[in-house]
Amino acid sequence: MIAGYGGAVTDPGESRGYTARGPATGESWPAVAAALNARMAERRTGQKALSEASGVSVATLRQLQRGTSTRRVQNATLQAIARALDWPDDHLIDVLLSRPTDKPATPPGWFDYAPWIDDRLDALERRLDTVDEHLTALRDSFDSLSRRLDQLTPARHARSAGPSPDTTTAPDPEG
């Protein structure tokens, strides 16, 4: 395992990546700066917001954005920034070491879906309003039928009831 990188080394001659001891051959901090600046512009993310999301100081972000860093930056720092920008954790390390970065990106954050969610919620709200209108019409019809039935019920009971069984006399068997 490469210290702080998380990937297995298959070729002993392969570049080890950055460690706390110093830079590996072929590091390109300007490439990291270009990738970072492009992603921040694409996502309209400022240094302060990225600092809060990644837990990396604004000063360190500013240094990385310039690409002329003389101070060493740990892999964990690059991973935190990559994660906050919805890249795979090792994306900026790969950029730094000029490795291919064609790995699938992590799913975008919920804010990327906000317009779609708003549209769907508006459509659902319109459908619920229609359902509510139909339910109100049905309730009004039911209330109207119920009142009409109440008006008819006493008259119907009076017609169909006839004399009550207590007041009728049994037929006289002899008579």
Write a structural description.
The protein is an all-alpha fold and 175 residues long. The chain folds into 2 domains: 29-107, lambda repressor-like DNA-binding domains (434 Repressor (Amino-terminal Domain), Orthogonal Bundle), CATH 1.10.260; 112-161. The protein is 54% helix and 0% strand. The protein has helices at 29-42, 47-54, 58-66, 75-84, 91-96, 114-161. Helix 2 crosses helix 4 (75-84). The protein starts with 28 loop residues before the first helix and ends in a 14-residue tail after the last helix. 14% of the residues are buried.
List keywords for this structure.
54% helix; 2 domains; single chain; 434 Repressor (Amino-terminal Domain); 175 residues; mainly alpha; 6 helices
Summary of the model, kept short:
Helices cover 54% and strands 0% of the residues. It is rod-shaped, with a radius of gyration of 38 Å.
Biggest sheet layout: none
Put simply, the count of helices is 6
Decide which structural class fits the backbone: mainly alpha
Shape: rod-shaped
Supply the number of structural domains: 2
Q: Determine the CATH superfamily of the largest domain.
A: lambda repressor-like DNA-binding domains
Oligomeric state: single chain
**What is the share of helical residues?**
40-55%
CATH fold node name of the largest domain: 434 Repressor (Amino-terminal Domain)
Portion in strands = under 5%
N→C terminal distance: 117 Å
Based on the coordinates given, report the CATH architecture of the largest domain.
Orthogonal Bundle
CA gyration radius, whole angstroms: 38 Å
Write the layout of secondary structure elements.
Elements (H helix, E strand, L loop, with lengths): L28 H14 L4 H8 L3 H9 L8 H10 L6 H6 L17 H48 L14
Helix pairs in contact: 2-4
